[in-house]
Amino acid sequence: MSIPKLNHYPLPRDAELPENRVDWALDPARAALLIHDVQHYFVGFYGEDNPLIETMIQNIQALKAYCYEHDIPVYYTAQPIKQGKHERGLLSDMWGPGLQDPAQQPIVDALVPTEKDVVLTKWRYSAFQKCDFEQQLQAQQRDQLLIVGIYGHIGVMTTAVDAFMRDIEPFLVADAIADFSKEEHMMALNFVAKRCGKVVAMSEILGTQTQDLTSLEGLKSHILTLIDCEEDEFDEHESLIDYGLDSVQVMNLIALWQQQGIETNFIELAQIPTLAAWVELLEERKED
Amino acid sequence: MQTSLPLTDSQHAMWLLDTISGRGELFNVAECIEFKGKVSASWLQQSLQHVWQASDTLACRFVRSDDYTPQLLPNDTVPEIISHTLESDPDDVLTFAQNFAQSYLATPFKLSQEPLMKLFLLRAPVQDYLLIVAHHLLLDGYGFGLFSQSLNRCYNALSKGKPLPQLRFTQQQQLLDLHHSDAFLAQQNAAKETLNQWLDEVPEINSYSTSKADVAAPNKRLTTRFKQSVWHTIQSAAQVTQTTSSEILLAAIAASLVAQYQHYHVTLGLVMMNRQALPELNCPCVQSNVLPLPLVFSDTTNLSDAATHINHQIKALKKLQNYRVESLKRDRQKQGKSLNIIGPTINLLPFANAPKYAGIETVSHILSAGTTDDIMLQIHLLADKPATVDFDCNIARYDDAHTQHIQARIFAAAEIWASQPKLTLSKVAELLRQTYS
């Protein structure tokens, strides 16, 4: 009945994110950050050295630094240990007794809260339940909420729904949450984007450039990481097969382009195996 | 009268295999294109004619000269697409297509007398199905893809009332010129030396079976697909190790052999596309090769080490791929060394493509990719979707239970190692032995 052992999966790329129904713009003067349930207990189900958790934590660290820089208040949720039956309510029926070991209760070391941060006691899926979180946000004049942490399709998504019903604009940071599986992760993103909030990527908040794999420069810098060639020796009109690009790497590129709605295939790319010709083909396909 | 031309090394090797075995049907390959609607038989036939006549490596016969040397004789006669009407659409397309193709797959082509391709348009009330049976001497996996793509281009041009596209296929003589060039031959000589050196350094080579029984019947296939969640973990492990999912799968296959034999040298057979120069990439012909991929691990190897090593070895092997496996076996024989130069054969197939025919979607079903005398794992890499693996086995060496056991062990190895990339190979092998001893 407890939470299952969880595996890692690739965090969604920007091109995989669902289309948002709303066009809310994040305003640092209106926003707060919620780091949801990143306690040893919940993180522990992913096992040690889990690449998904390592990446999520790095991303949350970067986001927290951004929030400090922009005077965005930072909140955490943390569930208490040894909740009584009355306190835990129906959660016991669904998940068992929950957190029992005091050593498992704190937030993980890499994200330990500072004095500036507020740690809320978490009682139910939504961070707003049985807690004065809404009032605290009002006091800070915050009506936008960035949500990160675990688990995407349970507490994170439910908190977003609850925020929406309280007229607080939820922003789910797609690559700073983790879930039971990629399917459940994407389900949470799709639901929020379509029904109660905005799904955003780290790159959008931090204003960092993501590589455009359909442009000459973007594709070139991506391909240079795959082949043994220095940038100044690379010629965009030379065969990429001669440079050592292999069929499986080409297939991965095809999958990335597919996520952007551009259909290509291995055979047609192999017949014109230069960077310049590929970019030309991608331009044509974009116009189709 | 058309002039006959010599064969390329790859064509010659396939011709010899066919002739010496006396079992030409073992080298038949088949694919079924499922149309999600109805297509025009006339446009298909016109497209086939245009593609066929644009390439002398397709429009040909393989004849024998007076001194028994095989030659390619251009011949423009285009195969006719034979139509069959079906009363209802099949529930299970793959099984239906396999059953339909069975008798054609079991019939050898007459290399010197007929085109090496047969096509059938199966017309059901809702959908049509194009079944293609060909001899491996005509096309390999890439060649098949090039042929299908060209057929599709022509069909779509006809459907839009546009002129048929100009197909600039490489012709046999151009291919021969390339293969006789000094640079190509120098590369081949260097490859010969390196491959022999590699094999000299490799200890005993093992496959999943120790039987040496020859092929007595067509291979039997077990097809399985990774679960979506496991595939995501494999993709994530590929990111972590900065390789691709194919290296993770090869590491899992290697781990399953380490678990079985408890030593850390594994030599796989890897099917190489063997097309590097542009003329080779534009030729619908057979060119692929199978070469040994020697891998050296240790008990402390983790997934990152293993995947990086595999990646490095594949890169090294790519430079050697134009030296034919048959020539390598001949070298070993001359030196009095073992002819057992590869373990299980792995074929990575990234050619997935589902083109639309005048807006009608298609699904491709590969029915047979040839015959192996041991075991061949055909790994279909399908962009973001989970990979499908066909286990094609020589039934004289592997019964159904054995094949299922091998499949379960490899899939378990992939799941265990991808989930915990820091586990050592000895630990992964131990876990596999505990479950699958």
Separation of termini of chain B?
Answer: 64 Å
How many separate helices of chain A? Answer: 12
- CATH topology (level 3) name of the largest domain in chain B: Chloramphenicol Acetyltransferase
Question: How many separate structural domains of chain B?
Answer: 2
Brief digest:
Helix content of chain A is 40%, strand content 12%. With 288 residues, chain A is α/β, with parallel strands linked by helices.
Q: What do these coordinates show?
A:
The complex is a heterodimer of chains A (288) and B (437). Chain A is built from 12 helices and 6 strands. Chain A has 288 residues and is α/β, with parallel strands linked by helices. Chain A has a 6-stranded parallel sheet. In chain A, helix 6 packs parallel to helix 7. Chain A is elongated. The N and C termini of chain A lie far apart (51 Å). The mean pLDDT of chain A is 93. With 437 residues, chain B is of the alpha+beta class. In chain B, the strands form 3 sheets. Chain B has a 6-stranded mixed sheet. The mean pLDDT of chain B is 94. Chain B is 41% helix and 21% strand. The radius of gyration of chain B is 22 Å and the shape is globular. The chains are: A alpha/beta (288), B alpha+beta (437).
Keywords:
heterodimer; A: 288 residues; alpha/beta; 12 helices; B: Chloramphenicol Acetyltransferase; Chloramphenicol Acetyltransferase; six-stranded mixed beta sheet
